[in-house]
């Protein structure tokens, strides 16, 4: 059994205590982007363009010595033609509804066998049948050249639902796979192996992730799968990682299952504490008793980007739309001095009681892996995003212009995303949805202004403590103030 990483202050996975590295404060500052075919039709050229664009973000990645890399990856729509071809010799004809999981596994064969058996048990508990495993072809010499961390064994699993064909909706299938994945992550690592020995890159019926500790321009060379002519996709999210205050690791390379993030979360400790506090009260008819497999919602071994992804997918699979979940996590400032509609202000005020803002300079690319890809910037727009929409139905967005060579006559529109703004690529509607439209649908979807007015409780409405008159202050000794602050979850900044 491998030694478990306890994630203590001043330590990183697989290292001794160090005063220079604090694992609770892992941040990313990276290059990010995506390419989407608005028609929703998979094409080979999109994958090739995604590989090219990722290679042109190399200067945004870590490992500037040319000998190491902090990690790069791609999240792509499921390449069905490719998957049916590679799984056919191992299983036979793949049915219409299937899922593929991509794993980083221990190099030790005995430990790996134990881990794979545990993965299959977690799948079986959610009504999924494991039918085959596959070694993902990987150029070992490239991994050895650039990786500072131990190189994992990369394998994929093919899983089928036990339910009769046609009875499981795609969104329900994805929710089951999410529960199974979180069950694996929460049960295998503490008991069988450490965080760096086991990681689930993706487990989905709609998407697949390829990532590793190489520069982005070499990702397709590392994984020959990506160079296969029948590997086609209708979207590709790409990410080149620059890790700050963290030891690079294969599992921390991005994208994550529904998020690619350029930036850092400065409120991370408070976000983690708030989520832990509410976990005993979490419930949902969509999760049922399986919610016990999801908790803790936030991966204790993750970076700030990984934890933000955890929170986003929890809200998504809990029934909220992609735009709704993103607006809850990264809200606009809504103080009374800001110009904003009353309906929008009420939406943010209502949700402030449900979720604390994940605040910090950030450019977020997020997806439900099926119908939509979204992008948004933080309130200060400290992470750039530029986009181009072409006349033949492609949308390209990245941390900077020039990731692809696009002839001027192909450009229909171009621009940059501004602070606090969101865009959605909607494959069902085959168009790009503006900030006002996508947020407006969420804001007007429920009577938030009525709820806040009728049900809201404000401080000035509460009775004064005994013996205290209006206008008089309540004076506390410092020790008592600190005790009550800890008791009720307030930080020094909030006070």
Please summarize the sheet with the most strands: 7 strands, antiparallel
Side by side, the strands of the main sheet go 8-3-9-2-15-14-16
Computed structural class: alpha+beta
Oligomer classification: single chain
Q: What features would you describe in this structure?
A:
Helices cover 29% and strands 20% of the residues. The protein is built from 14 helices and 18 strands. It has a seven-stranded antiparallel beta sheet, covered by helices on one side. It has a five-stranded antiparallel beta sheet with strand order 11-12-13-17-18. The protein has a four-stranded antiparallel beta sheet with strand order 5-6-4-7, covered by helices on one side. Helix 3 crosses helix 5. The longest helix has 22 residues.
Name the descriptors:
single chain, 495 residues, alpha+beta, seven-stranded antiparallel sheet, five-stranded antiparallel sheet, 14 helices, 29% helix, 20% strand, globular, disordered N terminus
Write the layout of secondary structure elements.
Elements lengths: L26 E2 L2 E7 L6 H12 L16 E6 L2 H8 L11 E7 L3 H17 L2 E8 L4 H7 L6 E9 L8 H22 L7 E6 L2 E6 L6 H4 L12 E6 L2 E2 L14 E5 L4 H11 L12 H4 L9 H14 L4 H8 L12 H11 L9 E6 L4 E6 L8 E5 L3 E5 L12 E6 L5 E5 L4 E3 L1 H9 L4 H8 L22 H11 L7
Antiparallel strand pairs: 1-10, 2-9, 2-15, 3-8, 3-9, 4-6, 4-7, 5-6, 11-12, 12-13, 13-17, 14-15, 14-16, 17-18
Quick synopsis:
By secondary structure, the protein is α+β, with helices and mostly antiparallel strands. It has helices at 44-55, 80-87, 109-125, 140-146, 170-191, 219-222, 268-278, 291-294, 304-317, 322-329, 342-352, 435-443, 448-455, 478-488, and strands spanning 27-28, 31-37, 72-77, 99-105, 128-135, 153-161, 199-204, 207-212, 235-240, 243-244, 259-263, 362-367, 372-377, 386-390, 394-398, 411-416, 422-426, 431-433.
């Amino acid at each position: 059994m491998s030694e478990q990483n306890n994630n203590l202050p001043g330590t990183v996975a697989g290292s001794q205590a160090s005063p220079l590295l604090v694992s609770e404060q892992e941040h990313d500052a990276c290059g990010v982007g995506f390419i989407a075919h608005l028609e929703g039709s998979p094409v080979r050229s999109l994958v090739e363009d995604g590989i090219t664009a990722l290679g042109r973000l190399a200067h945004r990645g870590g490992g500037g010595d040319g000998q190491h890399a902090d990690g790069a990856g791609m999240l792509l729509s499921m390449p069905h033609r490719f998957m049916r071809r590679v799984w056919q010799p191992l299983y036979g004809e793949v049915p219409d509804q299937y899922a593929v999981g991509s794993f980083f596994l221990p190099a030790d064969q005995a430990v790996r066998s134990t881990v794979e058996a545990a993965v299959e048990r977690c799948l079986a508990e959610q009504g999924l049948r494991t039918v085959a495993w596959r070694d993902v072809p990987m150029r070992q010499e490239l991994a050895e050249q650039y990786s500072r961390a131990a190189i994992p064994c990369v394998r994929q699993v093919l899983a089928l639902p036990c339910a009769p064909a046609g009875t499981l909706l795609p969104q329900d299938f994805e929710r089951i796979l999410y529960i199974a994945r979180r069950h694996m992550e929460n049960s295998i690592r503490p008991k069988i192996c450490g965080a760096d020995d086991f990681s689930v890159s993706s487990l989905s019926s709609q998407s697949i992730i390829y990532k590793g500790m190489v520069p982005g321009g070499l990702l397709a060379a590392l994984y020959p799968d990506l160079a296969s002519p029948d590997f086609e996709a209708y979207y590709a999210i790409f990410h080149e990682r620059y890790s700050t205050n963290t030891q690079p690791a294969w599992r921390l390379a991005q994208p994550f299952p529904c998020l690619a993030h350029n930036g850092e979360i400065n409120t991370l400790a408070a976000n983690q504490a708030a989520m832990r506090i509410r976990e005993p009260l979490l419930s949902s008819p969509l999760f049922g008793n399986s919610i016990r497999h999801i908790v803790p919602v936030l991966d204790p071994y993750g970076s700030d980007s990984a934890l933000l992804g955890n929170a986003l997918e929890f809200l998504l699979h809990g029934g909220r739309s992609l735009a709704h979940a993103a607006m809850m996590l990264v809200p606009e400032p809504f103080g009374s001095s800001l110009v904003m509609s009353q309906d929008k202000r009420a939406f943010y005020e209502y949700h402030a009681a449900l979720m604390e803002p994940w605040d910090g300079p950030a450019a977020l690319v997020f997806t439900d892996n099926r119908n939509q890809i979204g992008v948004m910037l933080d309130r200060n727009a400290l992470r750039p995003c530029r986009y181009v929409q072409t006349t033949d139905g492609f949308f390209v967005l990245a941390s900077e212009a020039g990731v692809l060579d696009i002839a001027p006559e192909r450009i229909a529109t171009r621009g940059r995303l501004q602070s606090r703004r969101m865009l959605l690529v909607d494959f069902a509607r085959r168009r790009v949805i503006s900030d006002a439209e996508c947020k407006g649908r969420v804001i007007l979807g429920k009577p938030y202004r009525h709820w806040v007015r009728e049900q809201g409780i404000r401080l000035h409405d509460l009775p004064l403590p005994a013996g205290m008159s209006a206008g008089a202050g309540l004076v506390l000794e410092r020790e008592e103030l600190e005790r009550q602050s800890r008791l009720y979850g307030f930080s020094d900044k909030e006070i």
